[in-house]
Amino acid sequence: MSPEYQEYYQQLLAAFHSHNAADRTEMERIEACFKSSLEYWTSVCEHAQKGFSGESSEIHFFKEVKPVFTGYIEYYTFRYHAILFQPEEDMLEWKRFWRWEQKKIERFYENNREFCVYMESGDTTRDQEFFLRIQDGGCSEGMPHDPDGALISPKDHVAMLLKAYQLYEDYIRNSIHINQNSAS
For residue 140, is pLDDT > 70? Predict the structure, then answer.
């Protein structure tokens, strides 16, 4: 990540760390992390709205920077959903819930296989197509956390979901591992 955004990222990670105090419930930690994600993304947007120095910095923003910040917003949305809907009492239903969540991730990877491979391989051959802003005001998949249409590129949404699902997949693995160990 470029230096102009690295400071925001380090501050975001520090905020996440401060929200993980033992005296908070998991719901409180998720809400605080979600709020911090939105706040730092807003700061990044304000910085980015000043403009880019060229195509390479614009591509870097949409390929590397934006998915990190928006990915955390979506990740904490997934975690919030899980807290609300995961069964508490029935271990069979709990396992079924988490298998369903894993299946959602698998479907995302299947439906977006080409793009996921592109991103994970470090390919750059289609960066201009994927990560330069939409110029004609055409249809885009902006999210509620996108302040306006000026900071949207064609693959924003998918890049964000890729980052969010990577984080969520790790969370699911850790949750299942912890629950299996505590059940033993």
Answer: no
